[in-house]
Amino acid sequence: MLPIQLFRQEKELVLAGLKKKNFKEIELVDKIVLLDEQRRALQVENDKLAAVLNTAAKNIGIHMSKGEKQEADTLKEMVTLHKEQAKDIAQRLSAMETEAQDMIIRLPNLPHSSVPFGKTPEENEIVRAGGTMPELGAHNMPHWELAVKYGLIDFELGNKITGSGFPVFMGQGSKLQRALIQYFLNFNIDAGFKEYSPAFMVNEASAYGTGQLPDKEGQMYHVTEDNLFLIPTAEVPVTNIYRDTITPEQELPIKMTAYSPCFRREAGSYGKDVRGLNRVHQFDKVEIVQIAHPAKSYEMLEEMVVHVEKLLQSLELPYRILRLCGGDMSFTSSLTYDFEVYSAAQERWLEVSSVSNFENFQANRMKIRFRDGNGKTQMAHTLNGSSLALPRIMACLLENNQKAEGIHIPFALQAYFGKNMIN
RNA sequence: GGAGAGAUGGCAGAGCGGUCGAUUGCGGCAGUCUUGAAAACUGUUGACUGUAAUAGGUCCGGGGGUUCGAAUCCCUCUCUCUCCGCCA
After folding, report:
1. Residue A291 CA to B45 C1' — how many Å?
2. What is the sign of the dihedral through the CA atoms of A160, A165, A166 and A170?
3. Count of domains in chain A?
């Protein structure tokens, strides 16, 4: 949620940002500014009346204690006279607040100045690429065939037990999964991130805080009986650790990491994009989250990008880093880098990580603040990224490393997996 | 799931219809003393909103009600604790 002060002070900036983000309902901005002015005027009126009534109530108390019943009754009459008016103003005020809130909540975050203009994924900017493209023989297989060949994943079994998009891992597939999680977590911990094991369900307030509600409600699994949501990413519970807190400035940045399964309904997906592990309803991911000082957040973002890049390099996978254009960025983000790895058998790039700076967009909703050197509270910036999402990493590992004798395990993973080959 | 108790400022904990945004202790900050630190002593210390600046307004778990006036009374929701039940 954008802070209201921004509309008062930097309206042009807001308009330009929304345009870059390819946001359609630009007219909302003027409505918000106007409503805010009206609201404040009414607020002053409300406060003045409240002041009069407060004083009167206080004086009644004093008169009563002195036994001056006459004076007290006169004041009571006066207050009663104004009561309806006060109630009316309060009601109008609250209606205006709700209306303004409903409009502001519909506006996406503003993009950073480095975000490229554009509307479609084709207009994303390739920042850099790394790793070497594998050369596979003509008889190469996509991961869903390799998974069957080596008995790693059973998609059919998942259909039977739960439904499509809930694959069952087994044997060496399970072990590789576990090895990846362990490796990613340790890699993050070594870089100074504190590990958390959060709950995999969150309440409404948390889902609202990170921006899943009200917008993306349909993307989450909802346990209606208890009104809880299965988390679509560990970002939700982990960022919410700091909801409604004021942190001393010197404790920033706060760096957190967590493993969690992620649950996504992925309503509306279909076709070859969703084949095998490309898109599933439940998958594992290790997430990193930071609460940062506003002056340092972009520095931290670059640091996170380098961190994830090193992780991909250690897995010996060909990758590229994209800076997303305004139209392809998420609702809540100011700047997002996507990481893609090359799936050799499918001959396409698969997104495995998304690293973003949300500036104070989430912090404003969640009231994540810090106390600066002058003792004033300020909104912090929040950032997060995947390091990493497992399914597509596994897909690429299987496909890119397939040999006649088995599937090669990259060196960094061997200690965790226990051997250097799946066969 | 049943019965009972509770939710107050960073923490602990008073207040139970009027001058309470809230006694006190701890913690934090500043100072005195000290070469420095500790101890002791003194002072200070909530958030939000709002104004040109003062002022004003709101907040005692959330929401609603009674009253001239609510942290205090009533209703409701959420959460916590104790006991019982169930159970990995």
Report:
1. 26
2. positive
3. 2
Q: Which nucleotide is nearest to A60 (CA to C1')?
A: B68
Flag whether A175 is in a domain.
Answer: yes
ipTM of this complex prediction, to 2 decimal places: 0.83
Contact A194, A256 (CB under 8 A): yes
List the A201-202 sheet strands across, edge first: A201-202, A228-230, A222-223
What φ, ψ does residue A322 adopt, rounded to 5°? Answer: -115, 140
Tens digits of per-residue pLDDT, A240-249? 998 888 888 8
The pair of three-digit structure tokens given for residue A367, joined into one six-digit string: 């009231």
With contact defined as beta carbons under 8 Å apart, do A158 and A417 qualify? no
The token duo for A309 is 């890049």
Q: Which residues pair with A255 in a beta bridge?
A: A290
Half-sphere exposure of A104 (CA within 13 A, CB side): 22
**Chain B footprint positions (protein CB, under 7 Å):** 18-19, 47-51, 55-58, 68-69
Protein-to-nucleotide distance from the CA of A366 to the C1' of B22, whole angstroms? 27
Q: Within 10 A of A415 (CB to CB), how many other CB atoms are there?
A: 10
Indicate if A274 and A220 belong to the same structural domain.
yes
Give the C-alpha separation, A92 to A159, whole Å.
53
Which range marks the domain in which residue A265 is found? Answer: 121-422
Q: Based on the fold, state whether residues A198 and A97 are members of the same structural domain.
A: no
Q: Do A134 and A95 sit in the same domain of this protein? A: no
How far is residue A178's CA from residue A295's CA, in Å, rounded to a whole number?
37
Residue A94 CA, nucleotide B68 C1', distance (Å) = 24
Residues of chain A with pLDDT under 70: 267-273
Strand A368-371 and strand A245-248: the pairing is parallel
**Do residues A110 and A330 lie in contact, with contact meaning Cβ atoms separated by under 8 Å?**
no
**pLDDT (tens digit per residue) in A5-29:** 888 888 899 999 999 999 999 999 9
Q: What span, in angstroms and rounded, lies between the C-alpha atoms of A356 and A361?
A: 12
